[in-house]
Amino acid sequence: LRQGLDKTRRSLVNQLKAIVGQGPLNQDAVEEIEALLLQADVGVAATDRIIDSLQKKLREEALPPDQAIAYLKSILRDMLDRPLGQSYNPTFAPEKDALNIWLITGVNGAGKTTTIGKLAHLAQKSEYNCLIAAADTFRAAAVEQVKVWGQRSGVEVISNPGQNTDPAAVVFDAIGSAQSRGTELLLVDTAGRLQNKKNLMDELSKVRRIIDKKAGDAKIESLLVLDATLGQNGLRQAEVFLEAAQLSGVVLTKLDGTAKGGIALAVVQQLGLPIRFIGAGEGIEDLRPFSSYEFVEALLA
Ligand code: GDP
What we know:
Protein name: Signal recognition particle receptor FtsY
Bound molecules: guanosine-5'-diphosphate
Family: Belongs to the GTP-binding SRP family. FtsY subfamily.
Number of strands: 8
Enzyme class: hydrolase
Number of helices: 11
Helix content: 40-55%
Distance between the termini: 12 Å
EC number: 3.6.5.4
């Protein structure tokens, strides 16, 4: 993780230490910190929240350099742990001996297929009985790509090879198979053509409805895969998915390719969703469950 966040850390930490190192934190330093956070793509709303907390603390007591960084870390951790001020279960794992359905959405190119492959691998390693539904039926290449990841991770892929197949039908069949086989984790791949927003929303809403209807007492999660290198633009795209897929969390990918890792804070603040996994590389092992502690330490250590 530390390596993945290297670019962000290098641009953030030295400057932050230089600002803070000048002595007890003063108003000028706070403004410089504000600029640094905006540069790292923390976003206006999240930056405001951080700076407000810092100002409030400073009215109560002076903050010498080491305490200033420690306090900043605690603010960041708290924000990441409590989207919209509410805490959520920090351990995020599929329930054993039960069906868990994870709907995986995102714009084409965000890293959706790669993430599904990595999740399948993680599930195999943790001895979950896993299955993938290839419901991006619009692109034949997408189904093939998911199958390649299925082979790599040793997880079977359910697809429907017919032309113009309805994604909801693939999902319907896949849930049926999952139920009869005692699958514990069903990963559902979906389309991500943003060029046609209305169709995409309709399709996703339909897939989501089928899942809700057919899932019985399965535990449903809906994860948005977001490309961290897109920064605030990625966040604007996210809004399309919020409602249609009824998102419950985010997977942030490509953190290794950006100096704007601060986007994690913007995601939590602006979408009100927890980050569940982060991707920091193209390999099958390059996905980790998200931990606010690890993230903040990797960012500001
Ligand atoms: P999809 O269209 O959303 O399914 O995206 P893909 O899974 O095909 O990924 C698009 C590109 O991003 C591929 O070249 C992946 O190797 C790359 N990619 C995905 N996740 C990561 C990541 O965490 N880090 C890096 N550096 N590249 C990634």
